[in-house]
Each structure stands twice: as structure tokens, then as C-alpha cells.
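Known limitations

Files may contain more than one protein. Parsers should not assume a single record per file. Below, a two-record file is shown to illustrate correct handling: read the sequence, read the C-alpha cell line, then continue until end of file.
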Amino acid sequence: MEQWRPLFEEVKPSFFEMCVALAFQYFAEEKVDIAIVEVGLGGRLDSTNIITPLVSLITNISFDHQALLGNTLPLIAAEKAGIIKPGVPVFISQTQAEVAAVFAEKAQRLGVPLTFADQHYQASKIAPQPADTETQRFRVKLDDAPVFDEIEVGLLGEYQRFNLPGVLAVLADLQRQGFQIPEAAVRQGLREVSQLTGLRGRWSIIGRHPLVVCDTGHNEAGLRLVTAQLAQLRYRQLHIVLGVVNDKDVTKMLAILPPTAIYYFCQASIPRALPAAELAERAASVGLHGAVYGPVQAAVQAARAAAAPDDVVFIGGSTFVVAEVEELYQ
């Protein structure tokens, strides 16, 4: 380690950059067959963007990290488009009129094939989701021809119907490249994604009676879908444990949330967390009221203690808040 000290002192890598370097070294040492690498923030300047992948996938674009990525959707999309590379097919999971041209221009300039997955794959939910279900079921068509009469997805957020077309399109392209991916493996992977990968925090049910759900949706688009899903649940009272980071447009996020809920304001144990008291002040300005608890654990304990068996407790606003909760209740 000592031989790397001069380089570290010169570059002064961030914690995230060091984690990425360690992960890539581990992948190389273990000789992994496939590494799925998610961009940390943005894309163009992200430390993960050093790789040249087999295929690139970009999900929906929403207002997020505006201080670093820009204040318009096209500017944010341009940063995300930074992962598009010569010779690498790129898929967009959800067509959005405001940003489609950004991706099309970048792909054309680099001469790479671009596919808007949702223009080919159509995923429709088969039945309403019960509050305590473990999976959700979809019917999938490819260019209007049935490919899955029924397929289970082990991630419960309503937004997974927008992600599924991108996933299936990427799998089809990897098969085109020569990878053998049988249908049984696709079905098992989608059904058991949480168990197989350890992925948590996506409409994750961590308690019942009362129902306790956490979700990492942390921008305007994510919270809009989460709020819509909460509205489908039946409950006597909704309790929301909320914490955010300080580089968000908090006012837009708060305006989406239901004013009838009881709020428990908190802050994750990271420097970027917006102080809970400041969050409460901003929330009050848009008609959201509750109490300030500071630490995430204190807010969660207060919400669960106050909730009746037929209430719902939702925990979210920040990936870091959800991470602390998942660690407590795993």
C-alpha cells in the first residue's frame, strides 16, 4: 500500500472513486464473467465510466443532482449520455420526448446503434398488487407479439414496469452477442433478483401490522411514482419517515408528498444530509407537518411506535436513509 501513497496524495481520490477502483481490482482478481456496473452520479465524468462495456443501458431521466448535472432535463441527459461509447450498443429504457434527441444525437455522432426499448417491449401488470405481496406479475409483448404471458419480478415498485423493457432488450442483445441465456434463467433472475444480488430498498417491505415499506426513490420522478403507489394502499393513517441530501431541489420533492401524512423528519449519518430541522421548515412551507427526530433510527422507532396495526409507515427520501434502515432490519 505504501507504494501508492504518492499517487493518492497527488490525486486525492474521493471515497467513491476509491471504492470503484477496489471493486474493479476485485473483479479482475476474481476473473468475473460478467460485471454489472451502475453509474454513481451523472455518467460522463463518473469514475465508473473508465470501462468499455458490452452494452449500455440508460433509464429514465429526472431532475436530480442539479448542482452537478445541470438544471434542465436535456443537460442532465447529456451527462448520462456520457456512457455511450463507440462500438457499444446503447438502450434507453423509457422514451421521453424532452431528452430523446440528446441520446439520438450522441449515438449518431459515435455511429452506434441506439434502441428505445419501450418502443419494442411493452410490459403491462397482470393484477393489482396486494400490500404484502412478494412479487409482481407482468405480461410482456415484443413489437405487439406475446413473449411472456406471465413473468414475475421480485422488485415491487410500480416503476419496474418502466425498467423491465430495458432489461429484456439488453438480455436480447447479449444473446445476439453469443451469450447463452435460457428463458428459465431470465425468469429466475427476475423473480429472485433480491435474493440473488442482495439488492434492497426498492419498495422493500420490512414490517407488517403495521405495514412498513422503504424505497430509495430520491428525486422528483421517483417520489411521484412512490406517492402514486402509496395512494393505492388501504390504511387508517400514513406515517412518513423522511430524510434528504442537501444537493436536491427539496421544494419540488416535498410538493409531491401527501399533506395528510404524519411526518418524522430525520437525517442520515453523512455530511451531505440536509439537517432534519431545516427539512422540517421547508416541509412546513408546503403544508407538510410532523416532528424532528434527527437520527434515522429515532425517527423510524417513533413512527413504528405511533402507528396502529392498520396504518402504513413509509421510509424514504434518500438512499442513505433507506440504507440505514435496511441495515437495522435485515
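...continuing to the second record:
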Amino acid sequence: MLEDLTTAASPAPWPAAYPKGYAVVDVETTGLARDDRIISAAVYRLDARGEVEDHWYTMVNPERDPGPVWIHGLTSDMLEGAPLFPDIAEEFANRLADRVLVAHNAVFDWSMIAREYARAESEAPVRQRLCTIALSKELRLPLPNHKLESLAAHFGVVQQRAHHALDDARVLAEAFRPSLRAAARDGVRLPLLECRPLTEWSGAPRIGQQSTGGPPSGGYGSGSWRPSRKRPACPYPNPGRYEDGASLKQGMRVAFSGDTSVDRELLEDRAVEAGLHIATSLSRLTSLLVTNDPDSGTSKVVKARQYGTPVIDEAAFGQLLRDVEPASGA
């Protein structure tokens, strides 16, 4: 059982709008790319007020090289006899069902989980996620950076095995509980984001196939989850900056920053299909920056302020994508 790190119970009533349960998750992977695989997963299930109900851990055979062993410590020999992801998918889903997924840099954990379920021709039963980085910002915690070890140190939580899924999940659960109670005490709105299962892809091979060789050059190979993201140049000229209250126009240069509820690359695909240009960096020519965290202080957000680039959130951008004006002369 986790040690209670709160000093006293909150006298204020618990917010009725808060979720009824949480699944604190950590996954270790073969790498950070779209075609990388989960090699271990851990879940701490918490009730509405952050009390631990149980925990679960498993290794997963990725059917490929395990990647940075020096980080996660899981070798090919250790993973050889582990179950495949489809073998643990049902149990994993039971741990996640009807709960908010909580993770540190949640977009990464959710993306890896969603892709594994997509490969297994299934869906993870997760509809919302909460990133503890975003929550620490909402609480204005005086952290030197956004590393898990800094969050743990703030609450006096001792890490025993960094980059081990079970211990990282334990540490995060211990840090999340006082964070949740502080948010409830102060009436803070939890930074919940929607989780949409990955069911869209184009030209991808049969889900479940996986390349066992090294990373291909020039994009993802025939065994990857999704083809290369390299796109042709936008055929329309840049009409300039987006103006508040107006419509998007084909050719506008759109940049993204931070976490998105829709998988980033699916969102970018939709923008490209509408005739927009995806900018990987922000410049004076950028028409619009899309971010759900305008106070994040990322380089793109900082430059947007410097250049006067318009900034909108993902929900507003999704609405604007429904009616993009054609380019002049198109």
C-alpha cells in the first residue's frame, strides 16, 4: 500500500465533476518512433480520491530487438518467453476500463498503447487521459523541470528502479495522489484530454505485421504500423496569417505544439487533406499555431508570441477544418 503523503484530509467537499477512478500507467518501449513496441507495462488502479485498489505488471515480447537495454534493462533473453501483446490485451483493457488514464507525458504512453491495440485489431477502453506534467502546471508546483524524478522529489517519493514500468507507475501513483487532493482542495479543473482509438490509417499493411529488421531508410518499411509520414509539398501559396473569426484558407502554414487529444499525425493528415501546409517549426511565415497549452513555454509558443502568430486550441482548429476556403484561383 502506498504511503499517505498528504498532511491532512481536505475539509472541502470533493468536486462532483472529478472522475470516478484512475489507471496510473507506465510503459517501457523499444524506442520512441511510431513503429516501436511496448516491452513492459504496469498499471496502478486508484479510486476516485486516489487510493490504491491494486496494481499489475507484465513484460511483453515485442518480436524484435528490445532497443535501448541500457535504459530499461530488458534484454532479448528476458523477453523471449514473455507474452505477446495480443495475449495480454484483454487483461490490460480490464485494468484501464472506465478509468482516466494517468501518465507522465501521457500522450506518449497513450499513443503507444493505442497503436498496440490497433495492431491487435482492437481498441483500448480509454476515453480520457490526464498528464501529470499538465497537472503540475495547473497546480503551479515549483519544479525545476518536468522530469518524473523532480515530481517525485517534490512529494518525497523515493524511486527504486527508474525506467522500470512497475516502479515508475508506483512513483507516479504516489505523486499523483497528493496532486489530486491539492487540486480538489483548491477547486482546480483537471486537465483531461479526450482519447480516441487509432482506427484511421492509409496504405498501411495488415495490422499486426511487424518488421524485425533495423529501421529502414527514407521512411517506415513494409512491416510498420504506418507508412512514411513524408508528404508532398503543399500545392497552394501561403495566403498569410489566420485572422480571428475568419475561416482557414488552403495554403496556410499550420504548426502544432504539445499534447493533442487526436493522434497528432492523424490531425496533421486531416489538415493536409484540407489543403493546409504542415510547418514543423514556427517562423514569421507561419499562419497559425495550434496548442492546448498556450502557457507551456515551448519554443514554438515563445516564438508565436514574439512574431504575433495567432494561437488557437485543438477544438477550435477541428471546427475550422470543417470549412476551409479554397485557395485563390483554385
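Parsers that stop after the first record will miss the second one. For reference, the second record is described as follows. The first helix runs from residue 69 to 72.
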